[in-house]
Known about the structure:
By secondary structure, this protein is α/β, with parallel strands linked by helices. The protein is built from nine helices and six strands. 37% of the residues lie in helices and 14% in strands. The longest helix has 15 residues, at 106-120.
Amino acid sequence: MNLRRLGYLLCEFLWPRFCPVCRKRTDRPSGMVCSHCLMRLPFVEQHEGCCRVCGRPVEEVKTDFLCEDCKIHKPRFDRAATALYYTGIARAMVQNYKYNGHVWLAEDFGSFLEAAAYARFDVEAIDCVLPMPVTVLHRILRGYNQSSYLAKQVARRLQKPYLKGVLVRRGHSKRQAGLSEEERRKNVKDTFTVRRASGIQGRTLLLVDDVLTTGSTLSEAADVLKKAGARQVLALTLARSFKN
C-alpha cells in the first residue's frame, strides 16, 4: 500500500464524509454525495432535442429547435447549459449550499457542471470562466458568493483562467424570487458593470450561476459583457426551474 492510499484511509477514519442527502457515510472516493443518492438526483438530460439557446429540454427531439420563450425574448447569452432540475433533493441541496453555508457541496456541484459544459459547449473554444456577482449586501449577509465557488470549480476542471472582479453588480436590486418575468427584467436592468474590459475583449466567456429561472439576470449580464467587447457569452447554471 503506497503512502497516498494510506493517507486517504487515515483521513477517512479520522474525518469521515457523510452524504448531505441520506446522512450515511459516503461510498465515493471524492465528493460528498453517496452513489445511491447520486442516482436519485434529477439531472437534466443533455441532447440535441433541446432549445439551441437556453437548453430547455423538449419531449420531441427536434434539430436546431428554438423554444417559445427564446422566440419572444431571445436572451443575450449565446447558449446555456444546466446540470439539474431545481426540484426535490436537488432543490434542498442548492438551498443549503446557497443560504445555509454548505459550501463543501461545491466539489460535487463542480463535477455536475463540468459534465453539463462538455455536453452542451465546445469547451476548447472557451477562453475564461467568471462568476455571476452578488450585491455587496448579499455578500456581507451570506459571507460568500455562492457562484464564485462554482465558477472556481468549473475553471479548475476545464483548465481555464478564472476572472475575478471583472463583472460587478452595483447597487441593490430586489430579490428575483416571486417576481414575474417582466418584473425580473426590469429589476436587473442596469445593475451590472464591467471592470478591466481589456481582459474580455474578443473572448468567449463562460458565465457561471447557481439557478436559472427566466434567464433575465444572465441575459442582462451577458448584454453588459458583450457591450464591453466579449465575443460570445455562454451561461452555465447548476440548476434550473422550468416553467410549464
